[in-house]
Amino acid sequence: MGNRKEGALLGKVRHVLFATGNRHKFQEAEMVFSEYGLSVERWDVKRLEIQSESLEDIARISLAWLMREAHPGCPFFVEDAGLFIEALNGFPGPYSSYVFSKIGNKGVLKLMDGVKDRKAKFVSVVAFTNGENVIVFKGEVSGFISYNVRGEYGFGFDPIFIPEDGDGRSFAELSVNEKNKLSHRAKAIRKLAEWLTSSKII
Ligand code: IMP
After folding, report:
1. How far apart are CA 107 and CA 182, in angstroms?
2. Which residues of the chain are modeled with pLDDT < 70?
3. pLDDT, tens digit, for every residue of 73-115?
4. Does the global pTM surpass 0.90?
5. Cα(11) to centroid of ligand 1, in Å?
6. Cβ of 97 below 6 Å from ligand 1
7. Confidence at residue 8, expressed as pLDDT on a 0 to 100 scale
8. 20 to 30 A from 160, CA-CA: which of 59, 132, 146, 202?
9. What's the N-to-C CA distance of the chain in angstroms?
10. Best of 100, 123, 160 to mutate for ligand 1, by most ligand atoms within 8 A of CB?
11. Are strands 134-145 and 161-163 parallel, antiparallel or unpaired?
12. What backbone phi and psi angles, to 5 degrees, belong to 84?
């Protein structure tokens, strides 16, 4: 069998599910997967999200819960992320989702009122299973909290996060493609995609 045909065949079986209710996260992941010729489908399923100091624990427990309660019968992954603000000792970190829903970007900017040290980072943890084993990948991006809400794209804290290695625009001022060149999630998912293509697990 020729290489191209073989590649096309492999392309068909290289398929995983991303368990997320967040369409923005899915769009980001889909774009990264396509760089590797992998296909990913959104699995819009309710999942257990425990409160913990550790993003890795949250992701692992969420994955284990889905494996037990709703296993889709094919490889899948979950992702958990958080914004860690240095001057606030890492707050909101693993509580980002709750904090965003309660006080939003304006509330965080209020907490940062008069704070000169604007350093922050986003961290993403991806937990993947082929049905038997679990593997975890992490990605991080350093940056700064802006002084005001900027941009229309993306979701969550994107309008107040300015990546250090960018051109001064906030994540919400970048296209998905541009955000993927820098983001915590793209880094974690790229590690997963690289592992999937090199280990030939799927
Ligand atoms: P989750 O628990 O992983 O869904 O994410 C926690 C919260 O962190 C989300 O509700 C968002 O507010 C925020 N967050 C995570 N990743 C990002 C991102 O890439 N951009 C902006 N906000 C994010």
Report:
1. 25
2. 1-14, 200-202
3. 789 999 999 999 999 999 999 999 999 999 999 999 999 999 9
4. yes
5. 30
6. yes
7. 38
8. 59
9. 20
10. 100
11. antiparallel
12. -115, 115
CA 45 to each of CA 21, 76, 130, 132: distance values in angstroms, whole numbers, following the listed order: 7, 12, 18, 20
Tokens of 31: 């774009």
pLDDT score, position 13: 39
pLDDT value of residue 107: 98
Atom of ligand 1 nearest to the CA of 185: 19
pLDDT of residue 9: 38
3-state secondary structure 11-79: HHHCEEEEECCCHHHHHHHHHHHHHCCCEEEEECCCCCCCCCCCHHHHHHHHHHHHHHHCCCCCCEEEE
Ligand 1 center from residue 155 Cα (angstroms):
8
Nearest-CA residue for atom 13 of ligand 1? 156
Q: Given 44, 80, 117, 158, which residue is catalytic?
A: 80
> Is-catalytic flag, 80?
yes
Q: What is the pLDDT of residue 47?
A: 83
* Residue 183 · residue 122 · CB < 8 Å: yes
Q: Distance between CA atoms of 169 and 161, rounded to whole angstroms? A: 9
Domains, the chain, ordered by start: 6-196 (3.90.950.10)
